[in-house]
Amino acid sequence: TGITPFEMDSSKILMIVDDQEFDRNFFCHAVKKIDPAWKCLTASSSAEAIKVLETAVQLPDYIFLDVNMPGMDGIECLAAIKTSAAWVEIPVIICSGSISQQHLLLTEALGAAYYMVKQSNIDNLPAEIRFAIAKTDEEIKFLKIESDNKKAKNS
Predict the structure, then answer these.
(1) pLDDT, tens digit (0-9, with 9 covering 90-100), for 91-106
(2) Contact at 8 Å (CB) between 44 and 24?
(3) Cα–Cα distance, 34 to 22 (Å, whole number)
(4) What predicted TM-score, i.e. pTM, was given to this entire model?
(5) 65 in Cβ contact with 44 (< 8 Å)
(6) Which of 53, 66, 58 is nearest to 23 (CA)?
(7) Which residues lie across from 71 on neighbouring strands?
(8) Please, what is the end-to-end C-alpha distance for the chain in angstroms?
(9) Cα(98)–Cα(95) distance, integer angstroms
(10) Mind giving me the DSSP string for 14-56?
(11) What is the distance between the alpha carbons of residues 125 and 50, in angstroms, rounded to a whole number?
(12) What is the Cα–Cα distance from 129 to 14, expressed in whole angstroms?
């Protein structure tokens, strides 16, 4: 049929963690352009993100996380998410205004699924979000296949 599970699922929940209100609104607007049925959770800080995750009735399918925030930055928030048994499986996509090799390597080592440079054009953002999710889903499938292959070899 050519329809991927990504396209068939109309109940995605995406979370954006960013200290800039404009960027959060921009992101949620783009999410609604992708699919009006998708939900967008927001947090204005890492501390607020942790509270949202702790009290969420349903956890987000993906977390888009800004790196540069006051207080607990995005890298510290990523580490907190990835060390929690309840949240470790949630793919975290890093969003940054610029790409830093140091941040890229560090966030990858901490378990980030993808590193996305923030878009300043609303017309490009929905495609960038879809691309980031698709790349993340590919990585998850690859890691599962790799894990299954290791299990098969060891049995």
Answers:
(1) 999 998 877 788 889 9
(2) yes
(3) 19
(4) 0.86
(5) no
(6) 66
(7) none
(8) 36
(9) 9
(10) EEEE-S-HHHHHHHHHHHHHH-TT-EEEEESSHHHHHHHHHH-
(11) 25
(12) 10
